[in-house]
Design goal:
By secondary structure, this protein is of the alpha/beta class. The radius of gyration is 26 Å and the shape is elongated. The protein is built from 13 helices and nine strands. The longest helix has 20 residues. Strands 2-3-6-1-7 form a five-stranded parallel beta sheet, sandwiched between helices. It has a two-stranded antiparallel ribbon with strand order 4-5. A two-stranded parallel sheet has the order 8-9. Helix 4 runs antiparallel to helix 6.
Length: 353
């Protein structure tokens, strides 16, 4: 039994072996050597050793999970991107054109200047709720073949949330940027900074300061997470931020963002979006076919605007999904073959005033 007890030297050797099992930056390797040296100094003081060992073990577990050099291969196919964006989004031509420009430049850079590092644009989608800001960020990740990391800012009141807490704190942990990289296991994901205008009032200035460092291409190749205490290279990350309006966003942050306005939709546009984009997905999610659900042209306006004006399509999406669920239940429980929704029965499916 005694032979199975981990000795201090064995514990150090395990940490050293774990750290050497992955490729780490030279400066970080030197930092780990200092940690191992400090553990060795405490080897004859069990209480101090095991306390420091626990902290060192947690730190090294985090460090070896960071994708320091792992990058996903971009899909640089303009035709694929155009088809995918048109398939997933109605209108929004300015956003689509910007993505096609970026893909074209990246493809040319890769061919003509393979040794040059090209920084991705930092986009800010500005628009009302439901206008497609978050879903467009997901589509950008999809057309590039990159992983997506979403970091919500709503109610955020602590800059440590983004850049981590130093290991001297009892509850020390890495920030959401580092955690996001660990989760996606690539150094070049699309990182969605969602609702950056909704941070808490008392933390607005400090969080805007972090955003300046995070989004500035001259600084974000050495973004320091306080827990790691070593710079992360975020220069290949494609940052996308969203907000409802820009009044609470610092000028220094705005200077680093390419603003793209997400328009409100007219009723006619929402009918097209509902009929051609949302309905097919809602049918698929409900296990239904097109033949089982038919909607009369005359009732689409009631589906689009049952309770008054809505700038986005979030309510429209909920209404169509609710309609499909009700139809699915009718087909399953009442054994009807299909349902035709028109003015005679629309109130059964859509809330009305």
């Amino acid at each position: 039994m005694a032979d199975n007890i981990l000795t201090p030297q064995d514990a150090i050797n395990q940490l050293v072996s774990k750290s050497k099992g992955v490729s780490l930056p030279d400066g970080l390797t030197a930092k780990l050597d200092e940690i191992f040296a400090q553990l060795t100094i405490n080897i004859n003081s069990p209480e101090a050793f095991w306390k420091n060992y626990q902290l060192a073990s947690q730190y090294i577990d985090t460090v070896v999970k960071i994708p320091w050099t792992t990058r996903s291969q971009d899909i640089l196919d303009a035709d694929f991107a155009r088809e995918k964006l048109n398939e997933e989004h109605y209108g929004l031509d300015s956003v689509k054109e910007r993505m096609l420009e970026y893909i074209s430049i990246l493809a040319l850079q890769k061919t003509r200047q393979p040794d040059k590092t090209f920084h991705a644009p930092v986009l800010l989608f500005v628009g009302l709720v439901g206008t497609g800001k978050t879903t467009m960020a997901k589509s950008i990740a999809s057309v590039l073949g990159r992983k997506l990391v979403r970091i919500p800012f709503g109610g955020l009141g602590d800059p440590f949330y983004l850049r981590g807490k130093a290991r001297t704190y009892p509850d020390a942990e890495p920030g959401q940027i580092a955690k996001g990289l660990i989760g996606c296991q690539t150094a070049n994901p699309v990182i969605l900074l969602d609702e950056i205008d909704r941070v808490a009032d008392d933390a607005l200035n400090t969080i805007m300061g972090v955003l300046v460092e995070l989004l500035d291409p001259e600084q974000n190749n050495h973004f320091v997470d306080h827990y790691l205490d070593y710079p992360l290279d975020l220069s290949q990350v494609f940052f996308v931020a969203t907000c409802n309006n820009t009044t609470r966003i610092a000028t220094a942050v705005m200077d680093r963002l390419e603003v793209i306005q997400m328009p409100s939709y007219t009723d006619e546009e929402k009918i097209a979006i509902g009929r051609d984009y949302i309905l097919p997905r809602a049918l698929r999610d409900a296990g239904l076919t097109r033949d089982e659900v038919q909607i009369a042209d005359s009732v689409w306006l009631q589906i689009v605007r049952p309770l008054g004006f809505d700038a986005g399509v979030r309510t429209l999406k909920r209404n169509i999904e609710n309609l499909c669920r009700k139809v699915a239940r009718m087909i399953y429980e009442d054994h009807v073959a299909s349902v035709y929704v028109d003015e005679s029965n629309i109130k059964k499916f859509i809330p009305q005033w």
